[in-house]
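Working notes for the structural subgroup meeting. M.R. asked for a predicted model of this chain before we commit to crystallization trials. I am recording the input and output together here so anyone reviewing the notebook later can reproduce the run.

Input as submitted:
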Amino acid sequence: RKSEQKNGDESRLTKEKYDLLQRAGVEWDPLLSQFQSRVEELRQYQSEHGTLRVKSVHKSLYSWVRRMTKEYELYIDVIENEKEVGGERKRSLLWDDVRRQMLDDLGFREELLGA
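Returned structure, recorded in token form:
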């Protein structure tokens, strides 16, 4: 694994150091970890309420699901429908297949997008 030092020189993270950091619990992708936590929260909600349609009284999760619904729609437009998007919409395309699959495993697309 290569990394760039402040002075522009390249350094290598040795396998031994990488393994040591892994064992220490270093979070390599904190945004993905946060996403996974939210998916787990949504999974728990689905288990308790039988739906992914989060009620607005659960403000934080409700807002996240609304945002993810918009992101998913954008993902469909760009990736599946090959639509050109620019500006603000393109910048908001934060998704990848890993995130999409996590939500698909819950039935997100079918229940919230009707697809």
